[in-house]
């Protein structure tokens, strides 16, 4: 913050160097080199300390906890940069990004064709960058204090039947057969859904549609299509509702499951409980989206995979930025921040259970992310 | 002062007032200007809010019914068939709140004004006022964490007792039919709202009851009335308009309450009186708060249109309240 403006000009030229430095640091060279450089305040080992200014982002609330961790980690290495993130929701985030209110956005859904077109103006003739930097398993959570087993096994068709209101008791044969070792109570099932428009609902119903379309006939939706159900606003409302009575079942960001039981989901021949590794694996078995480019790394999730050990109910949230920014300061700061987010250090930080419990992206994906971030430049 | 300020009636009498500039004239004008400006300012703000709502809601008001099919949270309904259930949900939650809160408030108000020892009355008054300072998000948390588990056994009993079962079998569904835990239904929401509007109603009726003319009360007692008869003959008739206006103040808060309803209610878009079922009702304010973050385009316009309708509803309620009070002006505390 105390740096003279002229020194900011150095920012843009060091982006790629910085990106490499950070990637190298996280890669196992030892993280302390970058923090040691800060104390000198000079260009020694810490090119990071040259950055200053502030960048604001907004968007998906699903990313909120992870972004909190990333901002803390990024600010440790770059004390001169203030990063803020307003969890306004994916739609608002994309809107605010496109009208220039914020410099980057978080969104559970990739941008539509229309939005990408208006993104060209917003990005000073450049392109919109979309990076899948947040992968979070969605847990199917239940409240059955009498069941001591760690997970209850359910096939996709069973999960769909429960949420469609067709399977109504916990001792239903469809559930009991999959859980021979668990004593299930004779208790009505109370399915709980999100009452607001939600990316979690969308991802969950996409999964149901992909795996059990004959049972779940409502298709993928953002707003729950069945009326007369228990529901809660936001993830906290969902957790409160599921915790509020016995026999409830819902779906939420796995990091927020807390003490509630979680369902092991039927994939192929086995039942897979959620874990970051199992969730991250789905990115490896999924093809790229039709309109993906080397700047927009959007993915078509293969939710109906039968690959062993893959947890198929995940939420992928994109970080959205511009390939061209108005000032060098903005370009340098956004690139540095997103490079940190993609780095092993940043991904591991978000993966910690007390931060966001997300699934770290693979090295292969990271390489392509870094290549995209290297293309961030300044207008003119 | 009264003598000094009155102008001398007899010009030949020695002047009793100081000649020269009238003291305080500048102050008078400044104060008059400030208060007039304040009065006009509130009108301007009100008009600005109304214009904002109307302008932003206009695209939704004139849009073709089919245009709303793309708005996810409206579930394929057009504007009016979407707003009516919300309006109904807003009204029913507020009515439940009033049914619970008004008798309770009158009881508390009477206790403070006529029964409690003075010292206790003062302390109790402060405590009630303190309730008004609690933010509504806290009431929401309180509703989820404390009230819902507490009322759940009661609701279960209401829903499954012999009378309800008999009625269901012989007449049809009752208002208590089909309770499902957790207690995230419109009755719970109404109860939380009732606690929230209690302080404002209590504070107003207490003040009105305290203003009952002493002579009315003493006349009643002198005729041999007990204290309860005195309250019925003197205090309640005198305070009637005050109770009505207090009720309307409470209703105004209940209609617009957002956070608490959002947190304790499983919302739905139906018009019925199943008070204990989840996913049946929703209030306008909570619905806006729930969907605004993810809304875009026509969805935003529709939400603002529902806000405009709530604005008109609240305005109408207040107009009716004013009209009732002015009809009974002879009872107002000002005489």
UniProtKB/TrEMBL annotation, chain A:
The keyword DNA damage does not apply. Pfam families: PBP_like_2. Coiled coil: none annotated. Residues 38-47 have a biased composition (Gly residues). The keyword Iron does not apply. Residues 1-23 form the signal peptide. Residues 48-60 have a biased composition (Low complexity). Residues 30-60 are annotated as: Disordered. Keywords: Phosphate transport, Signal, Transport. Residues 50-345 form the PBP domain. Belongs to the PstS family. NCBIfam families: 3a0107s03. This is Phosphate-binding protein. The gene is pstS.
From TrEMBL, chain B:
CDD domains: TM_PBP2. PROSITE patterns: ABC_TM1 (PS50928). The keyword Transmembrane applies. Keywords: Cell membrane, Membrane, Phosphate transport, Transmembrane, Transmembrane helix, Transport. It is found in: Cell membrane. Gene3D superfamilies: MetI-like (1.10.3720.10). The keyword Lipid metabolism does not apply. SUPFAM superfamilies: MetI-like. It is a multi-pass membrane protein. Residues 1-21 are annotated as: Disordered. The chain crosses the membrane at residues 39-62, 82-112, 124-144, 186-205, 254-275, 302-325. Residues 87-321 form the ABC transmembrane type-1 domain. Its main location: membrane. Belongs to the binding-protein-dependent transport system permease family. CysTW subfamily. Part of the binding-protein-dependent transport system for phosphate; probably responsible for the translocation of the substrate across the membrane. This is Phosphate transport system permease protein. The lineage of its organism: Bacteria, Bacillati, Actinomycetota, Actinomycetes, Micrococcales. The gene is pstC.
